[in-house]
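Example (one chain per record):
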Amino acid sequence: MKSKTKKRFMRLGIALAMVSAPMAFADVEWDGPAGGGIDVAANWTTDTLPNDGSSIGTVTDANTVYNTHNGQALAGYNVVFNGSSTFTNGAVTKSSFFLGGSTTTSMTFNDTSSAFFARSGGMNLSVGWYGGNAGSFTWNSSGTFGGLNEFWVDYSGGPGTYLQTDGLVTGAAKINVGANGTLTLSGGT
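Predicted structure:
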């Protein structure tokens, strides 16, 4: 009897571990308001920010912004934009939007999702920033990607990765690829 009880407890322990393990690294879905900030934890289903080390955040058919960077890096986020979602850099006071910095950052655009990096006088997008932490930007969308004045892949040590498989990217007067940058155009224009 002791061995049967022991086996039951072992099975129960394994079952609980299997159920709880995915929750520790659960992906999060957008449930915030239209135009809400991706940097606000309450706008995600688990009230936690999508972090490259533990979860992927998915936005589908919603408008989102990132207002608080003020020329600093969007660091530690892993966000996928699906459907017809739109991402903008929001109200900024500086002309650069960085992916990377203190931790790895990843943004992916699928389906017909769009991104606008608008600012009076032009906007720079830098994928991969100071500190050697990676930034990646993937464009798999037939949506609109615009508003750029200058586009960097690896801005001073990245590394940065840009992959485009679809769609039309417009507005960059200058494209720079640094020593630790990779720009791959396998589709789109």
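Caption: The CA atoms of residues 53 and 167 lie 29 Å apart.
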